[in-house]
Design brief:
The complex is a heterodimer of chains A (144) and B (520). Chain A is of the alpha+beta class. Chain A has a single domain (3-143), classed as 2-Layer Sandwich (Alpha-D-Glucose-1,6-Bisphosphate, Chain A, domain 4), CATH 3.30.530.20. In chain A, 30% of the residues lie in helices and 49% in strands. Chain A has three helices and seven strands. Chain A has a seven-stranded antiparallel sheet, covered by helices on one side. By secondary structure, chain B is an alpha/beta fold. In chain B, strands 1, 2, 11, 12, 13, 14 and 20 form a seven-stranded mixed sheet that branches. In chain B, helix 7 crosses helix 9 (205-211). The longest helix of chain B is centred in the N-terminal third of the chain and has 25 residues, at 116-140. The chains are: A alpha+beta (144), B alpha/beta (520).
C-alpha cells in the first residue's frame, strides 16, 4: 500500500492549527489535485480530485469522512472512491515557542483493473503530495 | 533420487536471477538451473582475446528497474554503471555529424546547426516521451491489465491521438510529425529498430521507441549507460545477491524437459538424466522453447499451443565484437579520442537507408548496406581492455535468422567483413585497428544463448504482442495452463530488454499463489 508521511512545524498556535485541520473544507483545499470540496454534513465531504498522469488527466470523486477527532491533537479521516481508498491521520503537538508540530500520514490503495498500476503510480507521487500538503498548510496558516 | 526444492528456475539470465533473489528473500528454497557454464543468459561479458572483455550480445542498460537495484542491494554485490555522455554520436557520409547529449538544451543547440525548427521540436519530443514514461513506468512492475482497460485511460481527443501514434504509427511517421532534417531523424530513430525484425517505416515501431524511453542510469532520467566490467556485471551481481538471500545457482545444468503429471508441472529432467522436483517452476526461457520444446504440445490446450505458435519470434540482429589496438578515427569528426567515442555511435545516414536495410532482411537477405550501432565501452570503462587498447561492440541491423539462401555458419565471417567495410567508410583506420574479432550470428544466439530464432526479446515487441497480449491473450499473468508452471522471461509482460521486470512480476505471482496455498 503506498504511504507517505511528513512532520513539519507551523508558526501558529495549536488551537488555530487544530481549527484549520479539523475542517474538511480546509484539509481538502490543501491536498494537491483536489479541485472541489463539497460538504455533505459535519463529518462528510465529497472531494473532486484531478490527477495528471503524464499527458493524461484523471478525475475522481472521493467521499471523505471524519473517523476520529480528539481535539485539539488528533484527527483521522478516510476517503472512498470508485478507484481509490485513502486513510489520513493528523497529530498535533504544541511547541514551547508557540508553534505547532504537525505529523501527517496518508495511506492510499487503488481498486479495479488498473489497481496495481495505479498503486505503482501513487507510490511515485505520494511523497511529493504529502510534502505539498505540508507546504499548503504552512502557507495558509502562516500567511495571516 | 530426485532433488526437491520449492521453486526451480529454468534459465540464469537477468530475469531468472531477479526472480531467484525475490523468492529466496521471501524464504523459499530456490534453485536456478543455467544451461551454460556462466550465469547471465544473453547478458554476459566474455573475453574474446586475452584482456578484452566484451558484452557478447546485449551491451547497454537503461531500462533495468531502480527498485530492483535497491531491493536486491545490487550495488553491495558489485553492480556499477556509467551513464555515458554524449548519449549518441551520428557521423554522416557527407562529413557532418550530430551529438545527442544527456542535457536537452545542449542537444537543442546541436540540432539547431541542422534546423532551428527541429531544435524547438526536440523540446516537445522530449516532453512527449517524458509524459509517456510517466504513464508507462507504473505498468512495468505489475501484471499487465487488460488492454481495453489500459486504452480506456486515454480519454479525450488529445489522449486518443497519442494512443493512435503509439500503437499504429511507424517511427518514421512520428518523427516526420516533429522534425524536418533527415540528419536529426536518422539520429533519433535507432531505438525503434532495436531487437526487432521491423523497419522504421513499419506500423507500430513508434511503440518500440516508447518501449525504450522510460529508463534511467544513476538517477539520470532517459539515460543509457554501461555496466562496469561489461553487461555481465549486472548478472554477476544478481547471482551474488540471489545466493546471499539463500538461492542456489547451478551452471552447466541444461533442462531437457519439464516433467508434469495430471496437468501440473512437478519438476524437470536435465540433459544428463538428473531430475529435480519442485512445487513451482519458473521458466525464463522464451515461450516457444518453454511450451513447444520443454513442455510439449500434448500437455497443453490446443488453443494455447496455437497462440504460442502464432507468437512471433524473429531475430534480426548480429553482433560483431572487436578487440582494437586504437579507436576508430571518424572522417566526420577526426580525432584519436574524443566525445565521439564515448557513447553509442550510429552508422545509418537516413531513415530511408535503414528501411532499405530492412527490405533486404524481410526477404531473408542480410542487409547489404546494414545499420551499425557501435559501443566502445573501454573509452569510459578501462577495466574491459588492456591499457591503451579498446573493445568495440557492434550491433548490426538487419541479419535475419531465416535466410533465403545459405547457412549462417558459412556466411557469418564474410558478413563480418561486410560490416567492417561499412564501418571503414566512416572510420578508414578500423580494419588496421582490429586485433581480434568475434561474430555472433542469429543462429549462434539461438544455439549458444538459447534465443529461439535469435530473437533477443523473446518475441517481437510490436503492439500486437505487448501487455495482456504477451505471450497469448488470457495467459499474460505469468501463470500457464500447466499448474505450477510460470513464465517469467522477456516473453512475458513487459517484454524484452534488460528490465528484470518479467522476472520480478513472475516471482510476485508465485509468492501470491504460495501464500494462498495453491502450490503446497
Amino acid at each position: 500500500m503506498p504511504s507517505g508521511e511528513t512532520t513539519f512545524v507551523v508558526r501558529a498556535p495549536l488551537e488555530r492549527v487544530w481549527g484549520f485541520l479539523s475542517d474538511m473544507q480546509q484539509v481538502g483545499s490543501c491536498i494537491s489535485g483536489v479541485e472541489e470540496v463539497k460538504i455533505v454534513d459535519s463529518a462528510t465531504a465529497e472531494w473532486t480530485i484531478k490527477q495528471k498522469i503524464g499527458f493524461l488527466t484523471k478525475t475522481m470523486k472521493v467521499r471523505t469522512q471524519s473517523l476520529e477527532q480528539t481535539p485539539p491533537t488528533h484527527a483521522k479521516f478516510q476517503g472512498e472512491g470508485e478507484e481509490v481508498s485513502m486513510v489520513g491521520t493528523i497529530d498535533l503537538v504544541a511547541l514551547p515557542d508557540g508553534a505547532t508540530q504537525v505529523h501527517y500520514q496518508m495511506d492510499a490503495t487503488a481498486h479495479g483493473a488498473l489497481a496495481k498500476i495505479m498503486d505503482n503510480y501513487v507510490k511515485t507521487k505520494i511523497g511529493q503530495q504529502t510534502q505539498e500538503f505540508a507546504d499548503n498548510v504552512k502557507k495558509k496558516l502562516e500567511a495571516v | 533420487m530426485p532433488q526437491a526444492v520449492d521453486v526451480l528456475i529454468i534459465g540464469g539470465g537477468h530475469n531468472g536471477l531477479v526472480a531467484a533473489g525475490y523468492l529466496a528473500k521471501a524464504g523459499l528454497k530456490v534453485t536456478v538451473l543455467e544451461r551454460r557454464a556462466v550465469v547471465g543468459g544473453a547478458c554476459v561479458t566474455e573475453e574474446i582475446h586475452p584482456g578484452f572483455h566484451v558484452s557478447s550480445t546485449s551491451y547497454v542498460v537503461s531500462m533495468f528497474r531502480p527498485q530492483l537495484i535497491r531491493e536486491l542491494e545490487l550495488e553491495r554485490f558489485g553492480y556499477r554503471t556509467i551513464a555515458f555522455d554524449p548519449q549518441f554520436f551520428a557521423p554522416f557520409p557527407d562529413g557532418k555529424h550530430l551529438f545527442i547529449w544527456q542535457d536537452t538544451e545542449r542537444t537543442v543547440q546541436e540540432i539547431a546547426r541542422f534546423s532551428k525548427r527541429d531544435a524547438e521540436a526536440y523540446r516537445r519530443w522530449g516532453e512527449f516521451w517524458d509524459g509517456l514514461a510517466e504513464i508507462v513506468e507504473p505498468t512495468v512492475l505489475a501484471p499487465p491489465p487488460p488492454i481495453a482497460d489500459l486504452a480506456g485511460m486515454f480519454r479525450g481527443p488529445e489522449a486518443e491521438e497519442i494512443l493512435r501514434s503509439l500503437l499504429l504509427k511507424s517511427a518514421a511517421d512520428l518523427l516526420d510529425e516533429y522534425f524536418e532534417s533527415p540528419y536529426v531523424k536518422a539520429a533519433l530513430v535507432p531505438g525503434a529498430i532495436a531487437g526487432s525484425l521491423a523497419g522504421p517505416m513499419t506500423p507500430g515501431t513508434a511503440f518500440i521507441l516508447g518501449h525504450h524511453a522510460f529508463g534511467e542510469v544513476n538517477g539520470i532520467r532517459g539515460a543509457w549507460g554501461y555496466v562496469v566490467g561489461g553487461i555481465g556485471g549486472l548478472t554477476q551481481a544478481l547471482a551474488r545477491a540471489a545466493e546471499h538471500f539463500g538461492a542456489t545457482v547451478l551452471t552447466g545444468a541444461s533442462v531437457r524437459r519439464i516433467l508434469h503429471r495430471d496437468g501440473r508441472a512437478i519438476g524437470v529432467e536435465l540433459e544428463d538424466g538428473h531430475t529435480w522436483e519442485a512445487k513451482a517452476l519458473l521458466a525464463t526461457t522464451d515461450p516457444h522453447r518453454t511450451f513447444l520444446r520443454l513442455v510439449g504440445r500434448d500437455a497443453l490446450p490446443a488453443e494455447f499451443v496455437r497462440g504460442i505458435e502464432r507468437f512471433q519470434l524473429r531475430g534480426a540482429a548480429l553482433k560483431v565484437n572487436l578487440a582494437l589496438r586504437e579507436l576508430p578515427d571518424f572522417t566526420a569528426l577526426p580525432g584519436k579520442r574524443g566525445p565521439q567515442h564515448e557513447g553509442l555511435i550510429g552508422l545509418g545516414p537516413t531513415i530511408e537507408y535503414i528501411e532499405r536495410a530492412y527490405d533486404d532482411a524481410k526477404h531473408g537477405i542480410p542487409s547489404r548496406e546494414p545499420y551499425l550501432e557501435i559501443a566502445l565501452q573501454s573509452v569510459v570503462d578501462p577495466t574491459v581492455a588492456p591499457p591503451g587498447q579498446h573493445t568495440c561492440s557492434i550491433s548490426i541491423k538487419y541479419a535475419p535468422y531465416q535466410l533465403a539462401r545459405g547457412h549462417w555458419d558459412d556466411l557469418k565471417e564474410r558478413y563480418g567483413d561486410t560490416v567492417l567495410d561499412v564501418f571503414a567508410r566512416y572510420a578508414p583506420n578500423i580494419r588496421e585497428a582490429v586485433i581480434a574479432r568475434q561474430v555472433v550470428s542469429p543462429l549462434d544466439m539461438e544455439r549458444e544463448f538459447g534465443l529461439t530464432h535469435g530473437d533477443v526479446f523473446h518475441g517481437m515487441i510490436l503492439p500486437g504482442q505487448m501487455f495482456s497480449f504477451r505471450p497469448v491473450p488470457g495467459w499474460s499473468q505469468y501463470r500457464t495452463p500447466l499448474k505450477g508452471l510460470y513464465l517469467g522471461g522477456s516473453g512475458a509482460h513487459p517484454g524484452g530488454g534488460i528490465l528484470g521486470a518479467p522476472g520480478y512480476n513472475a516471482a510476485q505471482a508465485i509468492l501470491e499463489d504460495w501464500r494462498e496455498g495453491k502450490l503446497h
